[in-house]
Amino acid sequence: MKACEYCGAQNEDGALRCVGCGNPFRVQSPGAGTAPALTSTLTSEVATGAGILLIIMALFFAIGSVWGETVARSAEVHKSRFYTFVTTSTPAKFIALAAIYPVFVLWRGRFGKSRAVRATILISLLSGLLWLLPRVVPYAIFIWCLPAVLIGMAAGSLGFYFGAVLQLAFGVSLLIRFRPRSQEASAAALQRTAEKCEPTNLERSEE
User: Fold this and answer.
1) Domain spans in the chain, listed from the N-terminal domain onward
2) What's the whole-model pTM score?
């Protein structure tokens, strides 16, 4: 049993919130044997956002290129070296919509629910802007995936997809490399668990 430092009520050792007043218990600092922090929260958030955007833009370009190529072939229309922005950008809005939930889940797991909501809204707005920009400036579509454009110009059509894979892999590497601090990740997990257990604790306090 442990006592609440706010109201003095006795709680189970594994309790995350006090059954008397509902205040959360402090998260203990990790011991000497705990793995060191990986990176700061701000750096991790910036790198996570950049990695997500790189992945989304690589999917914009790769899936859009497949779509443009398929449409061009099925319609038997003339296809230039770079696919027209109209056909290439068609799947982008659907990719952006499909990415909303995975982005929220990833961000919530790393930084907590409140930050996840703000980050998901911001990334959704940026994705929408990147989708709409080529409709104003058609050649802006090439900023989606510069590696694909550069490699494709030198190596042909397969180079576009190879460049898109490279950008996607780089985005994934950012997500893996710049993980949040281990202590903060644990605190976020404890916070989510506390939110789930809060109704149970309140029921116990009423009894």
Assistant:
1) 1-37+190-207, 39-180
2) 0.63
Q: Is 166:173 a contact under the CB 8 Å cutoff? A: no
Contact 60, 131 (CB under 8 A): yes
The helix/strand/coil state of 2 is strand
Q: Percent of the chain at pLDDT above 90?
A: 26
8 Å CB contact between 182 and 83 = no
| pLDDT, tens only, 60-106 | 988 888 887 777 565 554 555 444 555 677 888 899 999 999 999 99
Torsion, CA 42, CA 47, CA 52, CA 55, rounded to 10 = 170
Cα dihedral 5, 6, 11, 17, rounded to 10, equals -110
- Is the dihedral angle over the CA atoms 167, 171, 172, 177 positive or is it negative? positive
The answer to whether the CB of 42 falls within 8 A of the CB of 28 is no
